[in-house]
Amino acid sequence: MSDAIRAFYAVPISQACQNDVGNIQQQLKKQYPKNPLGWSKLENLHVTLYFFKNLPVNMIDELHDKVTQNINILPEFSLNFDHVAPFPKQGKPCAITFYMHPLEPILQLGLIMRQVIDDCGLGVDRRAFSPHMTIAKIKKISPIVWKPMQIQQHSSMLVDHITLMQSELTPEGPIYTPIRRTDLKRKNA
Predict the structure, then answer these.
(1) Which CATH number fits domain 4-183: 3.90.150.10, 3.90.1140.10, 3.40.50.1100, 3.40.50.20?
(2) Interhelix angle for 104-119 vs 60-71, to 10°?
C-alpha cells in the first residue's frame, strides 16, 4: 500500500435497489441508443458522502474512529429513489443520476462527515454536497439532450451503515474495496 489512497465514504446500495437500477439502465439504453454513456456497474452503485483524492494511509484508523464516534449515534433510516435526471442539474451535465428522498438524513451524514474530516486536519471540499447515485457517465464533451423519463418503478432501501471504500482506477473501470464499516444506530436497539 502506498502512502495515500483514493477513497470515499459512501452509503452502499442494497441488492434490491441494484436490480431496480439495472431495469432503469435498460430503459435508458432504449431511450438513448446512440449516446455514449458509460454505465455504472450495479455492484459499484453507492451514494458518495465524501471523496478523498489522496487519503493518507496513516490517517485511516484515526478517521474511522472519529467517524464511528459521530455516526453510530445517528438512527438508521429509509432512503427512497424516484427521480432520474442529469447531474449537475444546472450547467453542463456529466452524469445521469438517481435522486433520493428524504434528503435530511443523508445531508446530516454528509455534514457530519465534513466536520470529522476537518477535525482530522484532512482539509474539506467546500463545494455544496448534492446526494445522488450515478447510474451512467456522459462520455461525450457535448451534453446529451435530456428527455424527461417516467420511471415505472421506485426503489427504497434501509440505510444502516456507511463504508469507507478504496477506489483503484483500472482500464476496465474502477475497483472498489471496502476498508471500514460504520453502523448507524438500530431503531430497535
Answers:
(1) 3.90.1140.10
(2) 140
Joined together, the cell numbers standing for residue 131 give 446526494
Cα–Cα distance between 153 and 112 in angstroms, integer?
31
Residue 1 pLDDT exceeds 50: no
CA atoms within 13 A on the CB side of 102: 8
Q: Are 27 and 124 in contact (CB under 8 A)?
A: no
For 49, the grid coordinates are 458522502
> Tell me, what amino acid is at 17?
C
C-alpha cell of residue 36 = 455514449
Grid coordinates in use for 5? 489512497
Peptide bond preceding 171 in cis form (omega within 30 of 0): no
pLDDT of residue 41: 94
Q: What tens digit of pLDDT does each residue of 175-184 get?
A: 999 999 999 9
Provide the whole-model pTM.
0.88
